[in-house]
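Retro notes, item 3 of 5
We never archived the inputs for the flavin-adenine dinucleotide complex last cycle. Fixing that now. Sequence and ligand:
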Amino acid sequence: MDKKKVLILGGGFGGVFAAKALSSNGHDRFEIQLINDNNYFIFQPLLPEVAAATIHSSDAVAPLRLLLRHVRFGQSEVMGIDFARKVVIVVQGFRRLPVELPYDELVIALGMGVDLKRFPGLQEHALTMKNLADAHRLRAHIIGCLEMADVATDPEIKQQLLTFVVVGAGFSGVETVAEVNELIRRALKYYPNIDKREIRVMLVEYASRILPTFSADLAAYATRRLRLQGIEVTTGIGTKAATSDAVELTDGAIVPTRTIVATIGNGPNPLVSTLGLDMHWGRIKVDRFMRVPGHEGIWSVGDVADIPLVEEPGEEPLNYAPQTAQFAVREGRQLAANIVAKHEDKPLKPFAYTSKGSLASLGMSKAVAEVYGVKLSGTMAWLLWRGFYLSFLPGFATKIRVAVDWMLNLIVPPNIVLIDSSKPSTRYIHYRKGDVVLEPGMLIDGLYSVNKGALKLTIDNPETGEHFEKVFGPGEHFGEPVLLRSAPGTGLVVALEDSVVLWVSQQDFTWLARAAPFLDTYLKDYIGKTLGAPDEAFAAESAKRRRELEAL
Ligand SMILES: Cc1cc2nc3c(=O)[nH]c(=O)nc-3n(C[C@H](O)[C@H](O)[C@H](O)COP(=O)(O)OP(=O)(O)OC[C@H]3O[C@@H](n4cnc5c(N)ncnc54)[C@H](O)[C@@H]3O)c2cc1C
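Structure as it came back at the time:
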C-alpha cells in the first residue's frame, strides 16, 4: 500500500506534537515530513530565563531530529504553497535553491509573526522575545548597557542606559521583566560605578491590569510582588512611539531609555499572509476539526490557526482557542487523530479543550499559579512552575540540562560574560525633535541619510571663529567626509523636527565605496556643494582612504 504523504510546516508546539502523535499512531500508513527554518524546537516559555542567563541558551531548545522518530526532518524555509498542484515550495541547502515538496495532507503550524508598525519607531528600536536569537540579543544588550553605564560620564546617557522598559504584561512580558530585573540586580555587585537607585525597570501595560489570563486577585499579587522587587508597573497606559533614546507613552510621558522590549504586537506570519487563505485576526480561518475550508487536505494548528471552540463563535475572542503552548499541544494531538480518522473513513472530532490553568514566574523564587481552580502564589507556586515546566520539557537530556542550570543559578552569581557577535548593521533610526544625533568630537560610525524630517549640522571652530550651518532634509546625507577621512567628527547635529534617518554602518559604507568608484565622484561633488568647495586635502585623503580600503 502506498503511504500517504503528510507534510507539516513548522516545528513549534503545534507542529511537533502533531508529528509525534501521527508517528506513534500512523507511521506505518503515512510518510511524515516536518519542515522548520531552525533545526531545533524552542521551548518558548523558557526564553525569559535565557535572556536572564538563568539557563544556557542551548538548554531551552531540543534538536528536532532527536525529538521526532519516524519523521523525516528538513531544515528549510517555506516560501510558498501551490494548492492546485499540492506542492510546497521551500528553499534549502547550501545553494538555497527552491525545491517543491508534494503532499497529500498539509499541516500549517508556522506560528505568528511580530508586527509593531502601528507604533512609529518601535519596530526599529524595540527588542522582541520570540525566538532564541531574541533572548540571546536581549541578554547581550542588558550586559552591554551595564558595561557602558559603568564608564558613562554623561548623567543623561547613564540614565538612558540604566532604564529598561518592557512593553506588554501578558505571560511573556511579566516573566521577561521579572527575569531582566533579577539579572540586573544580581549583576550590580560587579559594577562599582552604578548605584542601585539609578536602575529603573518598567513594565508598561495598556490594559487596566497585568496577566489577563489570571484571576484579578492573583494579578494584584503579581503586581505587588513585581513592585517589591523594584519594578515600576504601569497599567492603563500604552506605548505611542519610540526613538533611539526614548519611548513615548500614551499619557504623553517620554521615558529616556536605550532598552525597549516589546512583547506585544502579535501579527500574521509574513509567509502565511501571502497564501491567499481566509484570515481572521491575522490567523488562518479553520473549522472545529482544524481543516481549512475550501482546501481539501489542508489543516492548521497552533497560534497561526483561528480554531473555534463552539459552533457559532462570532467575534467573541473567548470562543476561539487561545494562543498558548498548552492549547497548541492538544490541537496538534487532536489534528493527528483527525488525519488518521479521515483515512480510516471514521468521523472526525471537533477540537475541545478547557485550560487546566496558568503559571507565571515573577522572578526571585516567586510565581503565581492557577491550576484546576486552585490558586497559589509565592514560593510554592514557583516550585510548581519549575516542576511543571521540567516535566513538560521535551527530551530527557533537555530536562537534565535545565535542572542543572536552575540548581547552579541558586548558588553561583550570574554569568555576565558579554559575547556579542552581532555587528552594527544598516538600519532606520527615529529621532524626536531636539534629539542630539552627533556631538563635536564623537567618533562618527556611519553615514546618515535623511528619510523624513530635518536635521541641522553646526560646526564652530573656536580657534578661527568660523561658523558653519546646514540643514539636511529628505534625500540628503552627512557623515561621509569624516568616514572617508577616518577622522572624528567636529559638528553638532540636532533633529529640528521628528525625523527618520537611514544609518549605513561604516563597514557597509566602505564596502560600497570600494565596489562603486562612481561614488567617489558623486561624494566629492556632493560634499563640495554641501560643505563648500572640495578641498585638495579631501581629494588627497579620499584617494589615500581608497588605497587603504583596497589593501583590506
Ligand atoms: C516569551 C514567551 C513566553 C511564553 N510563555 C508561555 C507560557 O508560559 N505558557 C503557554 O502556554 N504559552 C506560552 N507562550 C506561548 C507559546 O509559546 C505559543 O503559544 C506556542 O509556541 C505556539 O506554538 P506554535 O507551534 O503555534 O508556533 P511556534 O512555537 O511559533 O512555532 C512555529 C515554528 O514555525 C517556524 N517557521 C515560521 N515561519 C517559517 C517559514 N517560513 N519556514 C520555516 N519555518 C517557519 C518557526 O521558526 C517556529 O519554529 C509563550 C510565548 C513566548 C514568546
